[in-house]
Amino acid sequence: MAVTQELLAYYEQDREHGRLREDRGRLEFWRTQDVLRRMLPPAPARVLDVGGGTGVHAEWLAADGYDVELLDPVPLHVERARRLTGVAAHVGDARQLPVPDESVDVVLLLGPLYHLTERADRVSALAEARRAVRRGGLVAAATISRYSAVHDGVRQGFYLNDEFRAAANAAATGSIMRSPRSGFTAYFHDPAEIPLEFADAGFPSVEHYGLQGAFWLYGDVNDWLDDPERRSLMLDALRSMESVPSLLGVSGHILTITHRS
């Protein structure tokens, strides 16, 4: 991942550790886990978690019996991830993976692509994943929907702010989100462009999964997530429509999965 000073300044506040463990971020976490558990090869396959943050996914993968190595460009994240049982963690860059060719069964890119604002860097990261994964191996990458800032801004009231509204509208029409709130620049994908980047990296066929659907925008989503029965119903509903093309852009995050031929 491209490590800029603004990126480090944001993540050194240690805000990432709780993002998927709390509140409505749990919906993204549980849905990512749900899709991956259906797609991953059996444990103890070797998983390279690139841009894995503080290990929110590496933790459950290791608990499930996978051989997990985490890479992240933020030293604070790596320090936290090293405390997890069964997880090896190192500072690293998605565009230059420190592993031999065809040496892992799975490469996860659940954070890097939206921090790589240049298309060439995103394709480079995907090509590195292809180099590292064995034939038949799985590559999964997360992207942020181009329209998420407008949707979330209206839901939370940030859209009333002139500066935020201008940034969100710019992202919706041009893909680059220069957030006045987070303090760093990110790339937001149109769903239609994702397979083109994968194709340029050597993956001609992909599958898309909208992670949150429209449910992340609901005011009472935390009530559903707090109640195991209601949460199960919500996850079932999302599973039934997760790959409907017309709904992908509504989801805050899209998970794209492919296999190396």
TrEMBL record:
Superkingdom classification of source: Bacteria
Name recorded for this polypeptide: Class I SAM-dependent methyltransferase
Pfam families per the UniProt record, alphabetical: Methyltransf_11
InterPro entries cross-referenced by the UniProt entry: Methyltransf_11 (IPR013216), SAM-dependent_MTases_sf (IPR029063)
EC number: 2.1.1.222, 2.1.1.64
Database matches in SUPFAM superfamilies: S-adenosyl-L-methionine-dependent methyltransferases
Source organism per UniProt: Microtetraspora malaysiensis
This protein's record includes keyword Cell inner membrane: no
Claim: Transmembrane is one of the keywords in the record: no
GO biological process, one term: methylation
MF annotations from Gene Ontology: 2-polyprenyl-6-hydroxyphenol methylase activity; 3-demethylubiquinol 3-O-methyltransferase activity
Domain Methyltransferase type: 48-140
Keywords, in A-Z order: Methyltransferase, S-adenosyl-L-methionine, Transferase
Uppermost EC category: transferase
